[in-house]
Amino acid sequence: MIYLKTPEEVRKIEYVNQLGTEFLLSCYEHLKPGVVTKELEEMALRFCEKHKGFPAFKGYRGFPHALCVSINEEVIHGFPSNRVVKEGDLVKVDFGLFKNGFCSDAAFTKGIGDISNNLTILLLKGLDGLKRAISKALPGNRFNDISMEIQSVEDETFSVCRDYVGHGVGFSLHEDPKIYNFVNKSRVNWQLKPGMVFTIEPIIFQGDFKVKTAVNGWTVLSATNMLSVHFEHSIAILPNGNKVLSRFEGITPW
After folding, report:
1. Which CATH number does the domain housing residue 71 bear?
2. What strands, in cross-sheet order, belong to the sheet with 228-230?
């Protein structure tokens, strides 16, 4: 079932998303060579306590942490740990906050310190896919219009993820429908309607998109040790356009 949110519910979801992105911005600024990733977990728990919410990921289907921190060949669902962030790493941070019955979800990727030109291009590919997808999130369009824009960044060097998707969000962390990073003709191509709230989350690989799951049962890895980026925004469809609910001032221009 696809839930249509009222304008008041959209405002409440936006409020929670703005809290969530306030935290993500603090992570973005904190990340530098020498940071231990479990520091971000501790920051997340303190933030949730301060704002009288709770981390949407922790306990979700048994996930043990408040946020996902994935580095380099780790694609998504990485565990915060004693791993030290190094110069040249690509760090992906994904966080959701649940407060007053509403849920946020957003993510960013940051290149640490001086990174290669190839990794800069990979980051720009991810941002370009996100920007293109947001531009098509309009009433009357269809979900494949969004997917087509993400897939358009593919070429002989870069590929988009087939195994993990964007999704409805707001009342809970994962709602219908799924928003693919490629045009999946086997799925219902829903028309976009005002009141829909969902995430757009392009995952772009520098090379092959095949993945595998780590021994912890959660962390998704590149099957061929390829590097990847992951960006995610929560979007609301409005009668005359869309609104990015998880705006990242200083990380993305939306």
Report:
1. 3.90.230.10
2. 159-160, 203-205, 228-230
3-state secondary structure of 39: helix
Residue located via tokens 């640490």: 112
Q: Tell me the pLDDT tens digit for each residue of 135-189.
A: 999 999 999 999 999 999 999 999 999 999 999 999 999 999 999 999 998 888 9
CB atoms within 10 A of CB 32: 12
Q: How far apart are CA 220 and CA 75, in angstroms?
A: 5
What's the domain range around 80? 7-244
Q: How many domains does the chain have?
A: 1
- pTM equals 0.95
User: Residue 102, class by beta-carbon neighbours within 10 Å (0-12 exposed, 13-18 middle, 19+ buried)?
Assistant: buried
Show the tokens assigned to 206: 């520098």
Query: 19 is written with which tokens?
Result: 């809290």
